[in-house]
Amino acid sequence: MLWSRIFSNLTTNFNIRRRQRGRHFATKKHYVPTPKAIPNPKTVTPSTSDATLLIIYKDEAHQALADPELVVGQLGAKFDLRFKNFKHYRLVKIQGFTSTFVDSYGIITLTYQRITAANIWVFCIDLDSRRFLIKPHFVNGLLGQPYSLASPTIKNYRLLLAKGPIRGTFSDKQAVVTYYYRNNNIQDITYQPYFLEMLDFITCYDNPLGHLTSVTLAKGTVWKTFQTILLTDGQIWHCMGGSLWIKETATAFKKITGPTKKSALNYQAAIKLPYSQPINQLATINFVPHKQVTSYERPFGRPSQQFTHNQQVLITATLQSYNITWYQLNHTSWITSQYLKISAKKGN
Q: Per its UniProt entry, which superkingdom is the organism in (predicted)?
């Protein structure tokens, strides 16, 4: 009798009025006609008892997505329902489904799930060295929901610039947000090249304020710089190519207008690269989706070409120097091993 009272109230709220026996019942939402009797003595005529069906639309958190619908008809009568569609949702569960009025009172519960949106990739890059400060990651959410990203906090670095949609609405299209940082020790950077003549034998560092390397620039040789960094404590460091740096001091070198034939020195010979070994192997660039990685004219040398993630390349030579494995691509430029996924297939 509890169900009877519930549905009695529902029918009252939906303004369902009884008509004469043998006729159909209807609401504003659905019309279910009384099936016509077939002139056959063996046909069982459906009962004319009232039947009421409630349709509930909800999400996985049990929040209503629409007002419930009420359908009335006669026991034994068949009906065809078309369920609602909701933007950004998909139907994942149906409870109590029936295509015939089998009970006086029934409930169909439809559960919908919010669709997951496409990823938003987040990159954190050192503006000066162009290297990743943390592993690239992605943020995702539910389709149509708003989002607002916050830049990750990275020790000893400050945020300088953000590119990409840091605020918006999750959609079905992938997006990229890039945060650019600078080391707190760096005050300024210039890319104006200088020619420096060594006044003594100068040992290189792997980074400003970094560790000494085994590379020494000979006295009397001339080198071209690729960038110059001014630190917050006043120190000045010059990049000599790749990961080789020297600190500016009064006795280390002097700036000149350009190298002479007498003082010019081949860069590769200066750092004593070992002989490369020829190979013929296919590989693919293993970097970050939709991004490019830089190759170099020679190991530890100047930037040369850029290659796209998943791009197929041919490895034509390899060498190992200072515990770093380098590969030559297509007989032209060099790249380190971590950016390659080497195939078992040989080149043509």
A: Bacteria
